[in-house]
Amino acid sequence: MAEKTWVRMVTAQTPTNIAVIKYWGKRDETLILPVNDSISVTLDPAHLCTTTTVAVSPSFDQDRMWLNGKEISLSGGRYQNCLREIRARACEVEDKEKGIKIAKKDWEKLHLHVASYNNFPTAAGLASSAAGFACLVFALAKLMNAKEDNSELSAIARQGSGSACRSLFGGFVKWIMGKAEDGSDSLAVQLVDEKHWDELVIIIAVVSSRQKETSSTTGMRDSVETSLLLQHRAKEVVPKRIKQMEEAIKNRDFGSFAQLSCADSNQFHAVCLDTCPPIFYMNGTSHRIISCVEKWNCSEGTPQPLSFVVDFLCEK
Ligand SMILES: Nc1ncnc2c1ncn2[C@@H]1O[C@H](COP(=O)(O)OP(=O)(O)OP(=O)(O)O)[C@@H](O)[C@H]1O
Ligand SMILES: C[C@@](O)(CCOP(=O)(O)OP(=O)(O)O)CC(=O)O
């Protein structure tokens, strides 16, 4: 008689995050350890988010993944690192109703199927890798009954994509760069939750949904190798800015928040220009948006200043 088969599934949803003090540059490319701390705001899950379903069954004969309906390879180091780290933390699962019992040691042999959808353009500068890897790690942790808290999970998601570690939390989140060589202290912590500053309105202007020409991974590698401005930024500028930004967020001081986030966004793009070969992530529309925000803030009687953060708004 054929052995009874079953499928255990978990679905999770994770929003993307936008950095207001940016991560740009790694000191370790395999473990994904950054050269500076960063701070981000996690978006409302109703808007830009990833939905990932992970399934395990004795009838699956290999690990497989579909992204936006298309099968992709899981053989890349980033996916393998996340899968390995979560499997190492898997615990026993028992579902008496369905008569399923998965012992801790069984997880090594069982295969996974993953289906993930982004409700926004993938690899276009809207941090799909952040929402994607955070969601994958979170869903796998639930599937495998891992007991780690979200900060511990963030250190695993970080090995998928650096910015992903910040999407494990809502509200404002700090990625502490850490000092340990094994990356164990490079993780995310929540500064304040989503209710702390709920009158803050975030507008996302997508000026292009094309895939960007230089990936963040390649771009930051080139910047680390060639930009002197990056070294200055990481050592001299960001540590002070992080403290000021934490203060601005704590006090809901929009004036300081806007000044710091605009300055940091501009410096990130300056580092890109200081890179050899130079990286251009902005286009004419992004420049015009920045000018409009600056003019609005400088005009007399402005009821409320605006802030801008530009990630990768590019177009051929
Ligand atoms: N939902 C997802 N689940 C797992 N991996 C994903 C998901 N979405 C994207 N990815 C991975 O992230 C890669 C895109 O990352 P990339 O950093 O190039 O762009 P981005 O994250 O959209 O933009 P940004 O430059 O703002 O980080 C994809 O090629 C894929 O490997
Ligand atoms: C400009 C950024 O959005 C860069 C994000 O880079 P990624 O996290 O996508 O890079 P990898 O770690 O190589 O996957 C700034 C930020 O989100 O802090």
UniProtKB/TrEMBL annotation:
Domain Diphosphomevalonate decarboxylase-like N-terminal span(s) in chain numbering: 15-188
Entry GO CC: cytosol
Catalytic activity, as annotated: (R)-5-diphosphomevalonate + ATP = isopentenyl diphosphate + ADP + phosphate + CO2
Domain Mvd1 C-terminal: 202-301
Tagged with keyword Nucleotide-binding: yes
EC number: 4.1.1.33
Alphabetized Pfam families for the sequence: MDD_C, MVD-like_N
One Gene Ontology term from the biological process aspect of the record: sterol biosynthetic process
GO molecular function annotation: ATP binding; diphosphomevalonate decarboxylase activity
Keyword Ubl conjugation: no
Keywords noted in UniProt: ATP-binding, Lipid biosynthesis, Lipid metabolism, Lyase, Nucleotide-binding, Steroid biosynthesis, Steroid metabolism, Sterol biosynthesis, Sterol metabolism
Annotated family: Belongs to the diphosphomevalonate decarboxylase family.
NCBIfam families on file: mevDPdecarb
Protein name, per record: Diphosphomevalonate decarboxylase
